[in-house]
Amino acid sequence: MSLFGQTVICGILLGGMYALIAIGMTLIMGVMKIINLAHGALVMVGMYITYVCYKSWGLDPYIGMLIAMPALFLIGCLIQRYMINRLVEVDSILPENQVLLTVGIMLVLTELARLIFKSDYRSVTTGYSSSTFFVGDMSISIPMTVGFFIAMAFTYLLHLFLTRTDLGRSIRATAQDRNAAIYMGVNAPRVTVITFGIGSALAAAGGSLLLPLFYLWPDIGHLFTAKAFIITILGGMGSTMGAIFGGLTLGIAESLGATYISMGYKDVVGLVIFLLVLLFLPGGFKSLTKR
Amino acid sequence: MTAKSWLTPTIIAVVALVLPFLLRDPYPQHILIMILIWATLGTAWNLLGGYAGQVSFGHAAFFGLGAYSAGLLFLHLKISTWWGMLLGPFVATAVAVPIGLICFRLRGPYFALATLALGEIFRLVFTNWVKFTHGAQGILILSTFPTKLPYYYIALAIWGLAMFTLNRLINSKLGYYFVSIREDQDAAESLGIPTTRYKMYAFLPSAFLAGLTGAFYMNYIAFIDPHVVFSLGDISVMVILVVMMGGVANPWGAPVGAAIYIALNEIFRAWLGSANVLAFGILVCLVILFLPNGVMGELGQIRRTAFRQKPAAAGGGQK
Amino acid sequence: MKKTLSISAVALMLIGALIIAGCGGGKQQAPKTEAKKETVKVGVILPLTGSEAMFGAMEKNSMEMAYEELKAAGKTTVGGKEIELKFEDDQSKQDAAKAAAEKLINQDKVAMLSGGYSSANTNVIAGTAQSKGIPFLIVTGSADKITQQGWQWIFRGTAAPASKYTGALWDLIDKVIKPKSVAIIYENTDFGTSSAEGFRKVCKEKGINIVFDQAYEKGAIDFKPMLANMKKTNPDVVFAVSYVMDASLIAKQMKELDFNTKLFIGGAAGYTMPEFKENAGDASEYVASTTLWIPNVAWKGAADYFKKYKEKYGKEPDYHGAQAYATMYIIADALGRAKDFTPAGIQKALKETDLMTIMGPIKFEDWEGYTNQDKPTTYVVQWQKGKLEVVWPEEAASAKLVFPVPNWKERK
After folding, report:
1. Do residues B298 and B291 lie in contact, with contact meaning Cβ atoms separated by under 8 Å?
2. HSE (CB half, 13 Å, CA atoms) of A48?
3. How far is residue C163 from each of residues C175, C194, C243, C287, measured CA to CA in Å?
């Protein structure tokens, strides 16, 4: 029983981490309908900024996050403004050529990081990095718990932003129907720029929260991109609450798979759930609430 | 008209046949073979992705299945990996049937992500199923021919087959059905086109050709492991990149894209030291930004402008 | 306006790239101009970009350092010709490794090849070298089967076959640890699988009960489900084959789970690296590992190499760097003895190698189905008070093995 409990706890905490990375992606995918393969690379950039803050000024990763987020917001805005928006205006046979642009951006960001920081593995070891508390004989990691609650808080704030502010409503309107939104007087290109910025900032937040318990090297982005996709689809594109449920589902599924099948197959479990949701619940968990 | 339409392919065929005699050194020949491998794989992807508009992020699955069909024949039955060239394409096609039936229910990004997930599942299963596949230890053989020429002509023949298949399909009634599905699936359905069936007609040859390429890759490179042949980043995404750089829905898109990708990657790798991937990434951004329809796609645009012809009504064009 | 802006942004990017390219290209061309006399080219294929670039860079630095030392000693001039190293990047991808091997052999006409970090790329380079009949001296690639093919042109000196990293460990297990049960965890890569296979086989021969045996996909964030599962089986000893950062997470998370064993043994790779200690922190204490080399081994020059590398590149090297450093010495030695610089001449010289290096004595022998494979000297090391100490074999030991290790809760 304690094994089961331990597994589920690990899964929930891990899921919270995944969710935070995925929220940024679900926002971007929801509004722009593009597959952003550079998302993991943005997480990586955020982690490096936090890392530099820690090494140069001794800033705790949780504070470094407050620097990484605006920085990534800016980077995200620039990418969208000068690169992706240019492509949207052009008529092309397949809209997927935007995906390729994100591949290019990913390569450039990764290699720039390699050029500056070399390929060395870096890590930030804080006093609380491996602190835990025990419930019964189940161990719970404190930084993961903190990260989990921060992730929840961000999701809630984002939810408020999207539902309560004018800008948030414009973002949702653009997500639902870009052309209709434009007719209603929404400045769609500007909205997409801000959306990409917010998405990138959230990616940075996810990276900063992971830094104390994980590690960092230029290629780390690949690990996150695929996970973020799965969660985005599980939760439904553009749904922040869906991303939380998607993240938790994936986290718990992977943990259970690792415990009861095999650690090597844990990712397969996640992918199979992903496929099943795609086929039988194509709108993701979001569509459940609408019924 | 007929004479003209045969002219270009004939010239290219002749050039391709004599090229290895002009470039006698094995190193450029190796690059040519790699270009042909990617041209074939790209052509396979282009049929499904470019013409029928079903953007697959999992073509590595078929490439890998082809390669592993060849490798496993050698591993378990101790017969030559060349038999894989017969088996591989059919294994890939057979696997494509259920995948197609599942994934063609989905559209746009959902279809793309479903194929991405399937490709990853194949990679993970082939890595973890150690008893059958030797897992990450991979399969190592000693290559059959000491020289490059036989490989070159086999690769050329496979590519020729791919080009022939593509041209036959897109110039038949099927080709119009493919494009109509790509442009507006609902409209196509309302006209009575059974879309799933016609997507299959694009998908199965595509998987067949990808499997064939994979089997050849095993024979040529002489070593495979799951992380190489089922790779998401290095195969599935790269093949899309190749076709998009060359030009989607253009028969010459994949070969041109492959030539650019392999040749530039090799030049950068050999000359730029550790900055080579960065330079390549920047180039990808530039190509997509300035030639959003790829080199071949924009070539038509340039030509039209040059000859001062009015753009075709269906062409859309830039605004 | 908008267009001008974006074009200038893109142009800026391009210029940046060109500057970088210029730097890279410039560096590469520098040795060419000074070496005007005839040269013997040695092609070295290492991952300089991609996921393995960290090790590739360390090995390249080490080889260049060794080359400079040899040059100062006049040993880079062999038979009136200057040895010239030609580094090629394999991008951590096997296609690029193949292209690099083809280029070096056919275009640059190198006399021999070296390098090879990952097993996959080493396999491909070895296959190409064997079919072309060019000697290839492996630096790191350690898959068993590379030297089991009977390939006469492939030499492996500084790297052991993956399943033979545990020589000293088995001695230690027989004499001191005597476990009743072991748990094996390993990454599902070539190195991980081969190592685990070798370990498993000996366990079965010796009748040691394997209570847990699982592979994992490298790069996971959370190993706790697997570790909690393993904790339940309560093994005496855990044998783990992991990459450096997975290794540190496993150690940390074992501590977090309060999972106690009598001894935790890593199978080379990650558990001996400075990054492991840095990230795992105090969870690294008492972790033991097999290894091929550490800076304080008895071999002459090992400590000097470590010190010099750290001074020059500001970073601690590990055994990968030492492998590359020693390999450079083997190359210079073999080329110095070669009668002529034909492939056969170099092959013969390599075969007759009997050289003392910082990796110990190197000889290329045929044994147990291996061809041209050096018999490795292995060690067992243990982290004690934040330092890596040799604990076995006894005659080389710099500290005594702590066994069984104290429980997590009993430590301060």
Report:
1. yes
2. 25
3. 20, 6, 16, 20
The residue whose two tokens read 């339409």 is: B5
Task: Provide mean pLDDT across the span C376-384.
Answer: 89
Q: Are B289 and C10 in contact (CB under 8 A)?
A: yes
What are the φ/ψ torsions at residue C133 (nearest 5 degrees)? 70, 45
Q: What is the Cβ-side half-sphere exposure of residue A280, based on CA atoms within 13 angstroms? A: 6
Q: CB of C50 within 8 Å of any CB in chain A?
A: yes
Chain C environment of A120 (Cβ under 8 Å) = 54, 275, 315
pLDDT at C25 over 70: no
| Strand segments (E) across C195-291 | 209-216, 237-241, 263-267, 288-291
User: Are the CB atoms for C110 and C134 separated by under 8 Å?
Assistant: yes
DSSP B76: I
State pLDDT tens for residues B113-149. 889 889 999 999 999 888 898 888 889 888 888 888 9
Asked which of A50-59, A246-255, B301-310 is least confident by mean pLDDT, the reply is B301-310
Look up residue A135 and give its two tokens.
């419930």
Mean pLDDT for B15-32 is 88
Chain B nearest C-alpha distance from C290 (Å): 21
Half-sphere exposure of A95 (CA within 13 A, CB side): 14
| Stretch 36-95 of chain B: residues touching chain A, C-beta under 8 Å | 49-50, 53, 55, 57
Before A282, cis peptide (omega within 30)? Answer: no
Nearest to B42 by CA among B150, B149, B163: B163
Q: In whole angstroms, what is the distance from residue B67 CA to residue B229 CA?
A: 7
The four Cα atoms A142, A148, A151, A156 give a dihedral, to 10 degrees, of -120
Predicted local distance difference test score (pLDDT) of residue A85:
84
| pLDDT band, very low/low/confident/very high, at A39 (cuts 50, 70, 90) | very high
C81-89 and C77-78: which strand pairing?
A: antiparallel
pLDDT at A132 over 90: no
Other Cβ atoms less than 10 A from the Cβ of A260: the count is: 14
Q: How many residues does chain C have?
A: 412
B25 at C interface, C-beta within 8 A? yes
ipTM: 0.86
- Between strands C39-46 and C81-89, the pairing is parallel
Residue C31 has pLDDT above 60, yes or no: no
At B62-80, the pLDDT tens digits run: 999 999 999 999 999 989 9
Any residues with CB less than 8 A from the CB of A144 and at least 6 apart, and which? A13, A14, A16, A17, A213
- Per-residue pLDDT, C378: 87
For residue C102, give the nearest of B27, B128, B275 by CB distance: B27
Go through chain B and tell me how many residues it has: 319
What is the average pLDDT score of chain C? 85
A134–C contact, CB cutoff 8 A: yes
**Shortest CA gap C338–chain A (Å):** 37
Higher pLDDT, C142 or C113: C113
Cβ separation A263–C50 shorter than 8 A: no
Q: Are the C-beta atoms of C181 and C233 separated by less than 8 Å?
A: yes
| Domain architecture of chain A: domains with CATH | 2-290 (1.10.3470)
Kindly state the helix (H) or strand (E) to which residue B220 belongs, with its residue range: helix B195-221
Pairing of strands C154-156, C181-187: unpaired
**Mind listing the domains of chain C with CATH numbers?**
37-160+300-373 (3.40.50.2300), 164-291+378-410 (3.40.50.2300)
| Contact between residue C369 and residue C148 where contact means Cβ atoms under 8 Å apart | yes
Neighbours of C373 (CB within 10 A): 26
Tell me the chain C residues in contact with residue A214 when contact means C-beta distances shorter than 8 Å.
221, 249
Distance from C-alpha of B23 to C-alpha of B33, rounded to nearest angstrom: 12
Question: Which pLDDT value is given to residue A290?
Answer: 57
* pLDDT at residue C154 is higher than 90: yes
